[in-house]
Amino acid sequence: MANTIVTPSIFAEAAVKILDNELVMANKVFRAYEGEFDKNVNGYKVGQTISIRKPTDFTVRSGSTASTQDIEEGSTSITVNQQKGVDFKLSSTELTLQIGDLAERVIRPAMVQLANQVDVDVMSLYKDVPNWVGTPGQVVNSFADFAVAPTRMDLTAVPLDNRTAVLSPTDYWAMAGSQTSLFVNGIAQPAYRKGSIGEIGGLDTYQAQNIPTHTVGPLGGTPLVNGGSQNVTYASVKDTGQQTLITDGWTAAAAARVVQGDVFTIAGVYDVNPVTKATLPHLKMFVVKAAASSDGSGNATLTISPPIITSGAFQTVSAAPADNAALTFNGTAATGYAQNLAFHKNAFALAMVPMELPPGAVTPTRKSYKGLSVRVIPYYDGTNDVSNWRLDILYGIKTVDPRLAVRFNGTP
């Protein structure tokens, strides 16, 4: 086949398809919000936002007498504020190539880097997830270890379809090794020969080198709830999905006792099934939404999620915490732990939108494919006879429903 001058359009079309092929977690989260951005045919700029409605809920009455309930819908938003790109230059000679050659030499390495960055950003949403099961620091190397994630998902009424697990390389290969002893040919052979473990326990399972590590805050002292009746109503928190919790008993006057993403339980406060409202056998887990320090008396006000709601359609806990109820944090202070994730696709959202084509550029182009969009702009350096190329993507990420996700480590 004769060589062809590679145009920006050809370049962009190859780039967006390679991007789709290289994404891992980002291809398993909710993507339909991109349709909300499709009214601007000229592309989008950083900072544009759409509003997302949160699902409502109801309680079931008994008997024939109607008991009308208000429809309470919270809302949140997703903003396309992540602009990422890769830039390089090609000589005129290098541009006179078959697209297949250029794709392997230049486009694929560039898009691998962009795909990794998107996955890293999506995985960073683990900090919004309160459920963290297993024993921090323990490797997932058996079905019993792995099963802690789908078990918690089942107990908390996460839908059974569209479930995915993403494991660190250490956990993935340990889990793959545990499958080779099974007398199940369809599982054992791929696990042994290719390291592919496929669907386990209803979760489509993948390895990701970008699994984040969460380092627990310094902690310190014996933290306690400072004052009872710190529960709230859904109406007061329906848009934020969080509240403050007043605590004491910390080491006095210390910075950053807790960091965003820390998880804790409160003595006597149990989880409830979000559908039946039945009390579950495990304590409710809460996630810290912002770093907090203690004052000179060891007091600290934490911002936490989910909010403590004790009744009604949006009930989250069995009871409000009592005064002086103890807080117990997951993991050891100042220690890092891999954050394997199991999630339903509706837990997180990614919206990647077509970027604006600047009027000053000579031959800018953008291509979209399966909800992904890449913009390519070449600009010529006449002094050195090289073409500079920039590849850009624009996207936003959001935790839509943290109840649909679980962080997990090994050893139940």
Features:
412 residues; alpha+beta; Elongation Factor Tu (Ef-tu), domain 3; 3 domains; 6-stranded mixed sheet; 6-stranded antiparallel sheet; 7 helices; 32% strand; elongated
Describe this structure in words.
20% of the residues lie in helices and 32% in strands. The protein is α+β, with helices and mostly antiparallel strands. It folds into three domains: 4-58 and 74-125 and 349-397; 129-214 and 338-346; 217-329, Elongation Factor Tu (Ef-tu), domain 3. α1 packs across α3 (99-123). Pfam families: P22_CoatProtein.
Give a topology summary.
Blueprint lengths: L3 E2 L2 H15 L25 E6 L21 E6 L1 E10 H4 E2 L1 H25 L8 E2 L9 H13 L7 E5 L1 H11 L5 H9 L5 E2 L2 E5 L5 E3 L5 E5 L8 H4 L5 E8 L12 E10 L6 E10 L11 E6 L21 E3 L6 E3 L1 E5 L3 E6 L11 E5 L2 E10 L4 E14 L5 E4 L4
Parallel strand pairs: 6-23, 7-9
Antiparallel strand pairs: 1-5, 2-3, 4-22, 7-18, 8-9, 10-17, 11-12, 12-15, 13-14, 13-16, 14-15, 18-23, 19-22, 20-21, 21-22
Helix pairs in contact: 1-3
Question: So how many helices?
Answer: 7
Task: Tell me the overall shape.
Answer: elongated
Q: Helices and strands: which structural class?
A: alpha+beta
Strand content: 25-35%
Main β-sheet, spatial strand arrangement: 6-23-18-7-9-8
- Strand tally: 23
N-C termini distance: 58 Å
How many structurally independent domains?
3
List the helices and strands in order.
Answer: EHEEEHEHEHEHHEEEEHEEEEEEEEEEEE
Low-confidence stretches: 191-195
Pfam families: P22_CoatProtein (PF11651)
